[in-house]
Prior knowledge:
The chain is of the alpha+beta class.
Amino acid sequence: MSNLTAFFAHNKKGNENIKRAISKKFIDEQGKPIEWEFAPVSPERDTELKSESTKRSMITQGKRKGQYNTDFDHFKYQRLLTVESIVFPNLKDKELQDSYGVMGADALLGKMLTIGEMADASAAAQEVNGYEAELEDLVEEVKN
């Protein structure tokens, strides 16, 4: 196989889902933590999540009056990416949402997990989406 043919679509390896026991609060019949399943997000959906996490505001004073500031909310993006990556449990399930008295996958995840568990879920989402380092480390690297 030549170097170029290794890049052909039929030679590309697929992205695999990963499973992680995110919380010790959700256990199976044997008392073991149930694994959550995470799947990679498509580049198109990732663009939408980044757009949802970006806020534009018009500057109303000073030399830049009439121009726009663009602010990227890294924490919102990380949360949206985590929610979008979780395929099991199905956070969009109405019955599951009703059991916690919430509407929406993001609100449900906030009710289900502690802050530490949320960090573990976020790390799994980053891993399945190909981030080698923590998103925070990447942000710091870009700043420097």
